[in-house]
Amino acid sequence: MDADDPPTRIPLADEAATQRLGRVLESHLRAGDVVLLEGDIGAGKTCLARALIQEGLAVLEDVPSPTFTLVQTYAVRHGELWHCDLYRLTDPDELFELGLDSAMETAICLIEWPDRMGDARPKNALTIKLSTDGAGRSAELIGPEAWQTRCREIAAGMRAVDV
Amino acid sequence: MRQTLTLLGIESSCDDTAAAVVRGMAGDAEVVSSVVAGQTELHAAYGGVVPEIAARAHAEKLDICIEQALSQANCNISEIDAIAVTAGPGLIGGVLSGVMCAKGLAAATGKPLVGVNHLAGHALTPRLTDACEFPYLMLLVSGGHCQFLIARGPEDFSRLGGTIDDAPGEAFDKTARLLGLPQPGGPHVERSAEQGDASRFPLPRPLLDRDDCNMSFSGLKTAILRSRDAVVTEKSGLTEQDRADLAASFQAAIRDIFIVKTRRALALYLAEVPAAPVLAIAGGVAANKGVRSALESLCLDMGVRFLAPPMALCTDNAAMIAYAGLERFAAGQLDDLRLSARPRWPLDTTSPSLIGSGKKGAKA
Predict the structure, then answer these.
(1) Are the Cβ atoms of B353 and A60 closer than 8 angstroms?
(2) CB burial class (10 A; 0-12, 13-18, 19+) of residue B313?
(3) In what order do the strands lie in the sheet with A126-133?
(4) Inside any domain, residue A5
(5) Chain B residues lying within 8 Å of A51, measured CB to CB
(6) Is A102 contained in some domain?
(7) How far is A2 from chain B (nearest CA, A)?
(8) From the list A15, A60, A89, which residue is nearest B352 (CB)?
């Protein structure tokens, strides 16, 4: 991550806004993209991921939380999507056991609790920091140069659907 | 075909590795042996839940579990009629190692192979433990799942509703984390709740106003978080009593959601006029005394038999897989070496999806 790239901040008034961010983000993703979802319990990580995944599915299906199974994979319009919850990982080596290293090259990966990745945290990923903000929440989009155009487009997309 | 069958069951779809031998007929079978290589000691050592990620670790433990299950059953592999294995849903590495192991055994011994849906294993357990007749209503809470099912046959389930977001076990685990209680959350939150005042924090009961059997637990997490932070801001900390009151308020909300939604599910089920109505529960919900006793009295009120299998058969185990395999095998349902592992596998494929679709907006 380049420290010079300023984060794009998006206010999220309610749960519906978090879901909207998921759907807007979906339209900007392609195979090989990694999105790291940061935030405390209850910040809306899974909520955002669910809306994103549902948007990409041709036929609606259940999108359970990956907390117990660590990974749920889906076939979305851009190919394969991995939804991961790394909270229960105890060692970054386990990422290889999960096959996440190769998935990050070929699939869209949404990763909750990326702090568990240690040095394996990908440098070219988009990080979304979700936090409580007054009565609502906000999202900070932080990414390297390659993500900046898309971050601006996503923010613009969110403003457009706010109207 | 009403002959006595002996099935070996293999289960490795989540954190536990298990094998079991079940003998009997559909609706009249017994557990001969059941081995679960749990991680309880490991859990204690790490102070949390340690997932078994490595497929090869499952595979190593599977061999030992199968040997133990057969030896405790005084049974040779040649005396087994078929091999049943969980083919999903679950953590794919675990499911795969179980399926590969079962295929290897089937190929080596020439025994038939039966793929079993893990959720069907839970849903058919009342037939193993209590010879329960179809149709019965099932409240199935397992891993990330929570649903009401009418079980009509070994492979015939109608989903009446379920969680549209998190499973309650997850809500308990995360509430425990928010309150600084140990994992797994269920027992610790409930213990803390016993000392608390459930009326102190008014937590939401989502979807109760809706006339369906769907539940939502994700918002409770947020409500707990906000209530906790409000207390912390006010007194710059959380006392033991504050924590107990939060836990009690949470436990009460969960109980209320289950009661209201179970009453609706029972009404739908009873409308079908079953001869001997039964509500059976499976999974961690069976271990929660508050929820369980509330469901028991609800059943008493509605003239329905309440059935909770022993805990060892409510949580993940291979006896339920062997039994579900026995039901399928007795009905002539077999798989071959093309059996594949399915990370997601709904029991009822005709009902619409729920999880994550509850509040979805219009789709372009």
Answers:
(1) yes
(2) buried
(3) A8-12, A136-142, A126-133, A34-38, A108-112, A79-85, A71-76
(4) no
(5) 356, 360
(6) yes
(7) 32
(8) A60
Distance of CA B219 to the CA centre of its chain: 22
Q: E strands along chain B, which residues?
A: 5-11, 17-25, 28-37, 82-88, 113-117, 136-142, 145-153, 156-162, 278-283, 305-307
Residue A43 maps to a domain:
yes
Both tokens of B77, joined, read 């592999």
CATH code: domain of residue A115: 3.40.50.300
- Read off the pLDDT of residues B135-161 as tens digits, 9 standing for 90 and up: 999 999 876 789 999 999 999 999 999
In B129-275, DSSP assigns E strands to 136-142, 145-153, 156-162
The pLDDT value recorded for residue B52 is 56
pLDDT band at B258 (very low <50, low <70, confident <90, very high): very high
Provide the token pair at B353.
């999806």
Domains by residue range for chain B, with CATH: 5-132+312-362 (3.30.420.40), 136-311 (3.30.420.40)
Concatenate the DSSP letters of all residues of B181-205 into one string.
PPSSHHHHHHHHHTTS-TTSS----
- Is A3 within a domain? no
Q: Do B222 and A42 count as a contact with CB atoms less than 8 A apart?
A: yes
Task: Give me the domain span that covers residue A21.
Answer: 11-162
As a whole-number percent, the residues of chain A with pLDDT over 70 amount to 96
Short-list B330, B323, B334, B287, CA closest to B123: B323
Cβ of B355 within 8 Å of Cβ of A64? The answer is: yes
Please report the pLDDT score of residue B169 as a whole number: 87
ipTM of the complex: 0.78
Number of structural domains chain A divides into: 1
- Cα–Cα distances in angstroms (integers) from residue B282 to residues A11, A119, B316, in the given order: 41, 41, 10
Cβ pair A88:B363 closer than 8 A: no
